[in-house]
Backbone:
């Protein structure tokens, strides 16, 4: 099967560091992406990991361990504007790979 | 900038009506997707298309069909709308499924 699991909610305070985890079923897995969605908005792309290890983009980093079928998004120096839903996603399959999203994690940043 | 445009932001339809949701992208992407988003369920894939006239079922295709007559346009059709199809519908396009671009969504209410 093809599914990605995330915690439903995470709460943190401004300035802190938060980690959002994602575990996935391995059938046809190619790589892991992360998307941010503010309330009422469309999802926007944050990062993609094709290989194991850490990818850093400013305050956001994303990690992948294919042997553990696990990845995470790390947000540093949290700001109020980071309050949003975060989704992991993966292209699964062969020649006609479909893009499957996780269940989403609602991050609430408190002052 | 990549642009994915959905024809309507809000739509209200009656039970039993045939409903067309249109999506157009301007980046010559091969892959296009339709998702529905419901609270607590994340983004669920309805159908996707990897080329003109080519389509594949996603995880929840029942009650829906799609059409891709031109590369830039991907239409979602609700053959006979039902109240359980009330949802936010999101269209996306992607070149290699490592990064997807989303439209603003259509909030459909079936009464």
Residues:
């Amino acid at each position: 099967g093809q599914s990605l699991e995330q915690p439903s909610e995470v709460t943190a305070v401004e300035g802190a560091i938060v980690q959002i985890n994602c575990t996935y079923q391995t059938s046809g897995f190619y790589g892991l992406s992360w998307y941010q969605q503010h309330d009422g908005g469309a999802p926007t792309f944050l990062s993609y990991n094709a290989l194991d290890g850490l990818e850093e983009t400013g305050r956001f980093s994303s990690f992948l361990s294919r042997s553990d079928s696990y990845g995470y998004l790390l947000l540093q120096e949290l700001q109020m504007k980071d309050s949003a839903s975060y989704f992991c996603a993966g292209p699964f399959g062969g020649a006609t790979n479909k893009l499957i999203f996780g269940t989403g994690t609602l991050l609430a940043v408190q002052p | 900038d990549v642009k994915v445009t959905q024809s309507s932001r809000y739509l209200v339809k009656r039970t039993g009506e045939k409903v067309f949701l249109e999506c157009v992208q301007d980046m010559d992407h091969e892959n296009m997707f339709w998702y529905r988003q419901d609270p607590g369920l994340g983004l669920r894939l309805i159908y996707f298309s990897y080329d003109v006239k080519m389509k594949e079922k996603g995880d929840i295709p029942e009650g829906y069909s799609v059409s891709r007559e031109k590369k830039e346009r991907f239409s979602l059709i609700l053959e006979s709308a039902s109240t359980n199809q009330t949802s936010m519908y999101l269209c996306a396009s992607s070149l290699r499924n490592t990064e997807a671009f989303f439209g603003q969504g259509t909030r459909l209410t079936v009464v």
